[in-house]
Amino acid sequence: MIRVLIADDEAMIRAGVRAVLSTDPGIDIVAEAADGHEAVELVRRHRPQVAVIDIRMPKVNGIDAAAEIRRTVPTTGVIMLTTFGEDDHILQALGGGAAGFLIKSGEPEELIAGVRAVADGAAYLSPRVAARVVAYLASSGAGALASRRGAARERVNVLTTREREVLSFLGSGLSNGQIARRLHVVEGTVKAHVSSVLARLGVDNRAAAAVVAHEAGIVPPPAPDQQ
Fold first, then answer.
1. Are the CB atoms for 80 and 92 separated by under 8 Å?
2. Is the dihedral of CA 218, 220, 226, 227 positive or negative?
3. What percent of the residues of the chain are helix, what percent strand, and what percent coil, each to the nearest 5?
4. Which CATH code fits 141-220?
5. Region at 61 (left for phi over 0; alpha for psi -120 to 50; beta for the rest)
6. Which of 70, 79, 88, 156 could form a disulfide with 100 if both were Cys (CB 3.0 to 4.6 A apart)?
């Protein structure tokens, strides 16, 4: 059973997230919070595997809450709920240790998939969030985008062939178990590769590594029906 906390200052959003997640018998909603401070306290108390947190909340915002949860309860993975127009906040949240990003107006299946992926130790960037991140980086200008892409490719070039392959799978949001099956190796081997990839790229979570993969262009584009 996957234990989940929901945090959003809007009661209707919390009810909607609960309704979607409750359709999966393998997910148990253990607590709800109306602000970031309460979310951190409830995570400490209930120790859920996943916390689904609105990126903008009163008292303590979702970005700061995610950072505090990562610091004090690192076993809890944080999924940020965002809306279009908050792309700069998504980048900040990556630095704060969030493991997943979902658009509030996305498909219900994405929410369940995201919770299951993060509970399994994977990063989860919905296709639309990944596209928005890349688009936001591009909006800084062609020169800046080329510089970012060039820097990302240089970082990826220090990886071994197998590590680049693992990074591409991270960019696609696959868990260690899924990657192991793709590569026909044991899960422990994948875990070692992931740790090495994060260290070599200089990032501290899988979601940040996924963005590097997208910037470097080593992740196949999503199918049209995923966009």
1. no
2. positive
3. 60, 15, 30
4. 1.10.10.10
5. beta
6. 79
Residues of the chain with confidence (pLDDT) below 50: 142, 223-227
Q: What is the C-alpha end-to-end distance of the chain, expressed in Å?
A: 30
pLDDT tens-digit map of 32-89: 999 999 999 999 999 999 999 998 887 888 888 988 998 899 999 999 888 755 556 6
Classified as helix, coil or strand, 138 is helix
Per-domain boundaries in the chain:
2-133, 141-220
Same CATH topology for 2-133 and 141-220: the answer is no
**For the chain, what is the radius of gyration of the CA atoms?**
17
- Amino acid 94: pLDDT: 64
pLDDT, residue 83, reads 74
**C-alpha angle with apex 53: 95 to 123, nearest 5 degrees?**
50
Q: Which of 156, 147, 149 is nearest to 203 (CA)?
A: 156
Predicted local distance difference test score (pLDDT) of residue 132: 63
Sign of the CA dihedral running 4, 76, 209, 56: positive
Query: What pTM was computed for the model?
Result: 0.69
- 2-133 has which CATH code? 3.40.50.2300
CA separation for the pair 105, 23 (Å, rounded) = 18
Rounded Cα–Cα distance for residues 10 and 206 (Å): 29
